[in-house]
Design goal:
single chain, alpha/beta, five-stranded mixed beta sheet, 10 helices, 15 strands, binds N,N,N-trimethyl-histidine
């Protein structure tokens, strides 16, 4: 089995910003904010898994239904003998639908999962290899941007996956930059298959990010627990209220942590105290929503166009196949 696994730890070009730097910069600013990726430590990732099972959180379930209905067609559209490359593979749960559709058409399949969590990546790769004897895995433990320059070549088309609307965390400028960099590494026959959450009624969106059980609140506030734990912070986490309104003009959900009352919070390891007025908030995450048109407009300057798109019957979520436009 090991012979079917190649495991590569990609060394990053730019060193990661540590949490202490993010706290000093982010909490001293006029508009307080913390970088989104700090939400996703082990506890945060587990809470996100719980979010995907909430009745109000439709994206995961809807994307899965689109894959269930269309995976064979998507693989066919990718072309003969395609390899699958996946950014942010996580547990590869939904990817199995595509892996199985590909293996139904070809004798062997090469899969390149990319994830920042090396441990998680290794165990996922091993599970997949033990289940699928005709699979070969080249796993890349890397940040998204570092992985782009380390993508293995393939004798045939590569289908590059970004599932789960993860691109929604990026601003339009960041997403265009990211797609442009991937495009620069694509061969003419390569394709991108991407999950995108669509613009819809405010009530549906706000329910999905302000769930009745409060799991999204636990997920959001986890970043404060992290600061307490990792930097000897003194956040009274119960005194921060989760709120995630939808901004129609920007077509995005914004996750916020609002201070309940005036507070002065010391963080020992950075030797600072941060002041919060009553109701003042920390921005933690955006989740951008698109239409086919706004997404196409983002792709064009990156050198990509939408070759095909699949949606659920309610038109809440889309999967788009992108190809080089020149
Ligand atoms: C993992 C970025 C796709 O934006 O829907 C879910 C993250 N945040 N609930 C999303 C998230 C709060 C999620 N993504």
């Amino acid at each position: 089995m090991e012979s079917r696994l190649e495991f590569i730890e990609v060394r990053g070009e730019r060193p990661q910003q540590p949490l202490c730097r993010a706290v000093i910069d982010g909490l001293a600013a006029r508009q307080k904010s913390l970088p989104t990726h700090f939400l996703y430590d082990r506890a945060g990732s587990e809470l996100f898994e719980r979010i995907t099972e909430l009745p109000e959180y439709y994206p995961t379930r809807t994307e899965r239904s689109i894959l269930e209905a269309n995976a064979p067609h998507m693989i066919e559209a990718a072309g003969e003998g395609a390899a699958l490359v996946e950014f942010g593979s996580g547990s590869s749960a939904k990817t199995r639908l595509l892996l199985e559709a590909a293996m139904a058409r070809q004798p062997e399949l090469k899969y390149v999962p990319i994830d920042i969590s090396a441990d998680f990546l290794r165990s996922t790769a091993q599970t997949l290899l033990s289940e699928y004897p005709r699979l070969r895995v080249t796993a890349l433990a890397a940040e998204y941007f570092d992985a782009i320059d380390a993508l293995p070549a393939h004798d045939g088309p590569r289908l590059i996956l970004f599932l789960g609307s993860n691109i929604g965390n990026m601003t339009h400028a960041e997403a265009a930059d990211f797609l442009g960099r991937v495009r620069a590494r694509m061969e003419p026959q390569d394709r991108i298959l991407l999950g995108v959450d669509l613009v819809k009624d405010r009530a549906i969106l706000e329910a999905a990010y302000n769930d009745a059980q409060g799991v999204t609140g636990l997920f959001n506030r986890n970043v404060l627990h992290r600061i307490n734990r990792e930097l000897n912070g003194h956040f009274d986490v119960e005194c921060f209220r989760h709120h995630a309104p939808y901004d129609e003009r920007m077509a995005r959900i914004e996750m916020r942590l609002h201070s309940v009352g005036e507070q002065h919070v010391a963080v020992d390891d950075v030797e600072r105290t941060f002041d919060f007025a009553d109701g003042e908030y920390i921005h933690t995450e955006w989740s951008h929503k698109y239409t086919r048109e706004t997404f196409a407009a983002l792709c064009a300057p990156a050198g990509l166009e939408i070759a095909e798109a699949w949606r659920d019957p309610r038109e809440w979520f889309a999967m788009m196949m992108l190809r080089p436009n020149r």
